[in-house]
């Protein structure tokens, strides 16, 4: 595995083009199973999680080809409704295939996801929704088995107790199956409305599946329908708002000046999907200019400390919480960052302390950052995707050399991150990790 070497302090300057969205591509990939044809998705990032999803799809029999950031999935040869633990354990989002496998086969066997690096991520609502929709749900040998659909047991109007992203994806696919089988409308209340979810809904609607949504009321309605036949379905992925947000925060933490290319399609533009980030950055003194297809950020030397709390979209994203903590370490004064989605998302803070940051995490709920202290380069370890990105941001601001290991976590979500940072002027490179020679003496 490569490790990342960074010599700081740095100041990021120049133009940045975001990658295709990881969390946007994954549900579209899951949806390929419901279309009995070829689907070509453009602008798919070349990252580990996408390759894992590709292997999972191949594992159930799909034929996949990834060339130049386009992924073609042919689900016609699919033969299995069971995902292996070996592949599922690499990525939680594999659980999102449960709904699309049920759509195709009427049943699915998917490994029960365990805890993960950012907390105990439950799937109880996924299971409850499956039961409400008339399926029998069992847990056996570590697998969730959803099968034996009975139309008599269908509840056609279901309220989520929290707007879970994953549960909304599965409910969408399960709801499409149930609406088709029963010829009844299925209504979900309190669904997630993250842009990656509405993009999935728009994609499904465009391809013949009847659904409508109300973002203000968080309602999704699914009507009886079948996919429209096409020998090749094509879709362009949206920009990755979390990658773009990470670079925006890195530019501010390093007091840089960057221009981020934006999508000119208003609904999925970064200007809109990251609006809470722009509000926060502008409130602390960052100059932000919005063009028709770009966003320019200029960070002055003195920024103001801040308070921010993560929450479901359209609030501040939890996937930018660690990066916001890194930003706070660069700003003089006390900042408070509250995490309200995950129960253990401050693991990376230990690595920031190794660089000299002054941070107190209280009850795993919020971080109090006493910022403005000079950070010094050190050997550090990426803890998880976004925590790893936050540590990388801190190494950019730290004085001297840092060596970041366990970079697999970062490459799960960020394409060519070192090359992109280097193009923005950072003194950063990758090197192959040295393997320790063990001698007998
Ligand atoms: C998705 C994103 C992830 C992001 C998160 C929140 C993907 C691949 N991942 O994750 O990057 O951080 O949304 O925006 O798109 N919960 C329950 N019961 C359930 C389901 C969820 O209690 O049945 C809880 C979880 O434990 C977690 C919270 O709800 O604490 C959020 O989960 P969810 O919105 O489902 O996020 P993911 O789909 O896992």
Compounds present? uridine-diphosphate-N-acetylglucosamine
Distance between the termini: 28 Å
> And the CATH topology of the largest domain?
UDP-n-acetylglucosamine1-carboxyvinyl-transferase, Chain
CATH class of the largest domain: Alpha Beta
Strand content: 15-25%
Could you describe the largest sheet, including whether it forms a barrel? 4 strands, mixed
Count the helices. How many? 15
Nearest-angstrom radius of gyration? Answer: 22 Å
Structural class comes to: alpha+beta
Architecture (CATH level 2) name of the largest domain: Alpha-beta prism
The chain-level mean pLDDT equals 95
- CATH H-level name of the largest domain... which superfamily? Enolpyruvate transferase domain
Large-scale geometry: globular
Low-confidence stretches: none
Strand order of the largest sheet: 21-22-1-23
Any idea how many domains?
A: 2
Helix content: 25-40%
Quantity of strands, as a count? 23
Characterise the protein shown here.
With 441 residues, the protein is α+β, with helices and mostly antiparallel strands. It folds into 2 domains: 2-19 and 239-432, Alpha-beta prism (UDP-n-acetylglucosamine1-carboxyvinyl-transferase, Chain), CATH 3.65.10; 22-223, Enolpyruvate transferase domain (UDP-n-acetylglucosamine1-carboxyvinyl-transferase, Chain, Alpha-beta prism), CATH 3.65.10. It is 32% helix and 24% strand. It contains 15 helices and 23 strands. The protein has a 4-stranded mixed β-sheet with strand order 21-22-1-23. Strands 2-14-16-15 form a 4-stranded mixed β-sheet, covered by helices on one side. β15 and β16 (294-298) form a beta hairpin. α1 runs parallel beside α2 (48-59) and α8 (241-253) packs parallel to α13 (385-397). The radius of gyration is 22 Å and the shape is globular. The mean pLDDT is 95. Bound molecules: uridine-diphosphate-N-acetylglucosamine. Uridine-diphosphate-N-acetylglucosamine is lined by residues 23, 26, 92-93, 119, 121-126, 162, 164-167, 192, 318-319, 341-342.
């Amino acid at each position: 595995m490569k490790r990342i070497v960074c010599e700081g302090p740095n100041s990021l300057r120049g133009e940045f083009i975001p990658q295709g969205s990881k969390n946007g591509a994954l549900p579209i990939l899951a949806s390929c199973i419901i279309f009995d044809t070829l689907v070509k998705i453009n602008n798919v990032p070349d990252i580990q999680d996408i390759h894992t999803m590709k292997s999972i799809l191949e594992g159930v029999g799909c034929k996949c080809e990834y060339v130049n950031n386009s992924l073609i999935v042919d689900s016609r040869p699919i033969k299995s409704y069971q995902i292996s633990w070996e592949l599922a354990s690499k990525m939680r989002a594999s659980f999102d295939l449960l709904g699309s496998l049920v759509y195709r086969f009427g049943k699915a066997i998917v490994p029960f996801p365990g805890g993960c690096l950012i907390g105990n991520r439950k799937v109880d609502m996924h299971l409850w929704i499956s039961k409400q929709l008339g399926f029998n749900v069992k847990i056996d040998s570590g697998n969730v088995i959803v099968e034996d659909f009975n139309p008599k047991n269908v509840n056609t109007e279901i309220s989520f107790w929290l707007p879970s992203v994953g549960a909304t994806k599965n409910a969408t696919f399960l709801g499409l199956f149930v609406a088709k089988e029963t010829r009844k409308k299925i209504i979900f209340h309190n669904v997630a409305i993250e842009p990656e979810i509405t993009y999935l809904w728009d994609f499904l609607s465009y391809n013949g599946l009847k659904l409508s949504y109300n973002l203000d009321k968080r309602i999704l309605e699914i009507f009886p329908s079948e996919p429209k036949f096409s020998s090749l379905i094509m879709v362009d992925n949206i920009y990755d708002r979390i990658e773009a947000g990470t670079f925006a925060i890195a530019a501010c933490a390093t007091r840089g000046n960057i221009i981020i290319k934006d999508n000119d399609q208003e609904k999925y533009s970064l200007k809109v999907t990251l609006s809470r980030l722009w509000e926060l950055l502008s409130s602390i003194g960052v100059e932000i200019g919005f063009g028709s297809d770009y966003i320019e950020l200029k960070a002055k030397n003195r920024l103001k400390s801040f308070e921010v709390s993560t929450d479901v979209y359209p609030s501040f994203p939890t996937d930018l919480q660690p990066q916001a903590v890194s930003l706070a370490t660069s700003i003089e004064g006390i900042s408070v960052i509250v995490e309200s989605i995950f129960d253990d998302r401050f693991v990376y803070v230990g690595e920031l302390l190794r660089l000299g940051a002054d941070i107190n995490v209280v009850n795993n709920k919020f971080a109090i950052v006493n910022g403005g202290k000079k950070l010094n380069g050190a050997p550090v370890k990426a803890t998880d995707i976004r925590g790893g990105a936050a540590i990388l941001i801190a190494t950019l601001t730290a004085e001297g050399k840092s060596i970041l290991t366990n970079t697999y976590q970062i490459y799960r979500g960020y394409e060519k991150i070192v090359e992109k940072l280097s193009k923005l002027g950072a003194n950063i490179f990758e090197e192959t990790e040295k393997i320790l020679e063990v001698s007998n003496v």
